[in-house]
Amino acid sequence: MKTIPQRTCVSCKEKKNKNELIRIVCNKQGDISVDKLGKMEGRGAYICNKQECLENAIKTKALERALKTKIEEQIYNNIRGVIHE
Fold first, then answer.
1. Three-state DSSP string of the chain
2. What does pTM read for this prediction?
3. How does pLDDT run across 49-79, given as a tens digit for each residue?
4. Domain ranges, residue 70
5. CA 39 to the chain's CA centroid
């Protein structure tokens, strides 16, 4: 059986299976997007599939630190659209 890689949420610091988290990617051009397949090139950060984790990451700027870039409100809105809980 193949083991699933573990990743840590930048907001709550909880370790989870990679496929349970949402990957946010910043590519070389500085474009930030949600990586649904986990295969996009660039610096990635993982966040739980929970609204509260995203809101906490926005408040503490955890995603900005992890991706080493400023994140616009529109991008946070795109991420909110992907979260299911």
1. CCCCCEEECCCCCCEEEHHHEEEEEECCCCCEEEECCCCCCCEEEEEECCHHHHHHHHHHCHHHHHHCCCCCHHHHHHHHHHCCC
2. 0.91
3. 999 999 999 999 999 999 999 999 999 999 9
4. 6-82
5. 13
Contacts of 9 by beta carbon, 8 Å cutoff, 6+ apart: 16, 21, 46, 47, 48, 53
The verdict on residue 56 lying in a domain is yes
pLDDT at 85 over 80: no
HSE at residue 42, side-chain half, CA atoms within 13 A, is: 22
**Cα separation of 51 and 41, whole Å?**
25
Residue 1 lies in a domain: no
CATH code, 46: 3.30.1230.10
